[in-house]
Specification:
Blueprint lengths: L1 H19 L3 H22 E3 L4 E5 L2 E5 L2 E5 L2 E4 L5 H8 L26 H14 L6 E2 L18 H4 L2 E2 L6 E2 L3 H9 L23 H4 L31 E8 L2 E5 L13 E4 L8 E2 L3 E3 L2
Parallel strand pairs: 9-12
Antiparallel strand pairs: 1-2, 2-5, 3-4, 5-13, 6-7, 8-13, 9-10, 10-11
């Protein structure tokens, strides 16, 4: 990100200059300038809302398979949706991992799971309203979830025909290209579209445990979000912990990506499908919104 590079250079220059002067007034001014630059960078790269923290993903291009993809800038949630946030918005917690968190961890900070695509549609629109943003999802020409009826527990053609309001400012599920681009971060390439050995933060599995909860280190359960190291975009758990549902369709339903606490290392970068009506105990989601 060009702005990030600029700010990093400016901060480094300020620190270098401060080491060359001994005047206390000058040093105090330099400290204030450095702090201001850091705050400006954080404001540019992050979106702090009432209920959720988002990271800005700058626009860019990358190769996925044989195709070159171009992604517009957007904001992505720093973490998978937590049980606390889901319960705050939906006044329920469908998670199967709803008790006995790991030592030193907090139940409400574990990712919500066992949620269906249909439930996520409602959550996104309700969260948008809670944050004074315009809802994205529209069913039968309505974005007001109170007019959608009960959340289906079986396949529903009306809910399957859900549309995205293109100019809405609220929350939605990531599209595949957005999610892959955000997960790859600095590993995204415009020349090589084979990411079979790439994970969210590392290449290969030698230090996968630094970034992901998976079969070898999870003790077969979910963990607090953001316990592992973030990737280069400042996003946590883009590999492991729980699978993340996307907007895009898959042969088995809606695509889910990123692997989970149960995944073998070779499957942490894979994608699978999940029916719109169903929730699985190893599958959650994170949200994105427009960067206007």
């Amino acid at each position: 990100m060009k702005k990030t590079v600029f700010y990093a250079i400016a901060i480094s220059a300020a620190l270098l200059l401060s080491s060359c002067y001994t005047n206390s007034n000058y040093e105090e001014q330099e400290d204030e300038d450095t702090l201001q630059l850091k705050e400006e960078q954080e404001d540019e790269d992050s979106l702090q809302l009432k209920n959720i923290a988002m990271k800005k993903i700058e626009e860019g291009s990358f190769k996925l398979g044989d195709d070159t993809k171009t992604v517009s800038s957007f904001y992505m949630a720093e973490t998978e949706t937590t049980q606390k946030l889901y319960n705050t918005i939906m006044e329920s917690n469908p998670s199967e991992h709803s008790a006995s968190p790991a030592s030193g961890e907090t139940q409400e900070n574990r990712p919500v799971e066992n949620v269906s695509f249909y439930q996520i549609l409602v959550f996104c629109n309700k969260l948008s309203v809670a944050e004074n943003l315009t809802p994205v999802y529209q069913i039968k020409n309505e974005t007001d979830t109170s007019k959608w009826g009960n959340i289906p527990t079986d396949t529903n053609s009306d809910w399957d025909a859900v549309k995205e309001v293109s100019d809405a400012t609220g929350f939605r599920l990531p599209h595949q290209d957005e999610w892959v681009f955000a997960a790859l971060g600095s590993n995204a390439s415009t020349t090589n579209g084979d990411y079979s050995n790439f994970y969210a933060g590392c290449i290969g599995t030698d230090n996968l445990g630094t970034y992901a909860w998976y079969k070898d280190n999870s003790n077969n359960t979910t963990h607090d979000v953001a316990k592992k190291t973030a990737n280069s975009n400042g996003l946590y758990d883009m590999s492991g912990n729980v699978w993340e549902i996307l907007w895009d369709s898959h042969s088995e339903g809606h695509m889910r990506v990123g692997g989970s606490f149960e995944a073998d290392p070779q499957n942490v970068s894979a994608n699978w499908g999940i029916p719109a009506k169903s929730g699985y105990a190893d599958t959650g989601f994170r949200v994105v919104c427009a960067a206007n």
